[in-house]
């Protein structure tokens, strides 16, 4: 589990039924917040353009793929 072994996340296991684990970022993991948030913001801002590109690609595949 890379998140644990690389120090980005911690987890506390609770021996209940069903089993439970509380996850939390470590101080190292918290340094990723701005980077991840920037990716989320970019994705939200560009959803329409990505959908249009996907539609153009799918349409080109229906036409034999030569137009993309």
UniProtKB/TrEMBL annotation:
Protein name: HTH hxlR-type domain-containing protein
Domain of life: Bacteria
Organism: Sinorhizobium numidicum
């Amino acid at each position: 589990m890379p998140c644990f072994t690389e120090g980005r996340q911690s987890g506390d296991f609770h021996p209940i039924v069903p089993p439970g684990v509380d996850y939390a970022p470590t101080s190292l993991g918290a340094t990723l917040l701005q980077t991840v948030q920037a990716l989320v913001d970019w994705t939200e801002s560009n959803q329409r353009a990505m959908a249009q590109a996907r539609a153009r690609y799918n349409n080109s595949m229906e036409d034999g793929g030569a137009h993309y």
